[in-house]
Amino acid sequence: MSTPARKRVAVLVSGGGSNMAALIAAAADPAFPAEIVRVICNRPDAGALAKAAAAGVETVIIDHRSYSDRETFDAAVDAALVAAETDIVCLAGFMRLLTPGFVEKWRDRMINIHPSLLPSFKGLHTHARALEADVTLHGCTVHFVRAEMDMGPIIVQAAVPVIDGDTAETLAARVLAAEHRIYPQALAAVASGRAVVDGERVVHTGGGEPPAAFVWPPA
Ligand code: GAR
Question: Which CATH number fits domain 112-219: 3.30.70.100, 1.20.58.760, 3.30.365.10, 3.40.50.170?
């Protein structure tokens, strides 16, 4: 029996690119159901660019400051995705809001990682806000992207306990380690067709381990 073709994935980044690096590392395994074909970055000075290049992944810079509005910027990103024959888009610390038309075009083919247990703490400064709210469990979420910010059917979540004495920085570091674990899991589930959207919920089907919610670090 022939192996199904690996899905072609483009990763959109704005910053350091540690989640992007985790996806590239996972996809280095030929058994992983996706390959990272292109990294698209909206900031010419982002650390992600050198990391992607070092891993041999093609990079494209689309500087949002060169575009007069969100529609023309998104059209340029869309063209770069289409040119790379992209099947799945992964947002990995991509800090631009996307227009509803762009999101609709990539509906159920675009996923995002967010550093909180959604629907809690959408938006920025999630770790400081979690500490301020005095929650005992924080975490991260990979979800399909919808036009509303940090909304959409949830694929995988990891819960991260808040520890006495945590600062936003120590909590962020612990959550980031969990992000690096769940993003490849979620991408594998989507790329292999094991995680599909059905009525705005994700249904996990087929063989293999379903990517369950888990607590990080493991006991
Ligand atoms: C990650 O924590 C990611 O979840 C977050 O930005 C960081 C990027 O780090 N994304 C968002 O806040 C999006 N709403 P990285 O560049 O090292 O992957």
Answer: 3.40.50.170
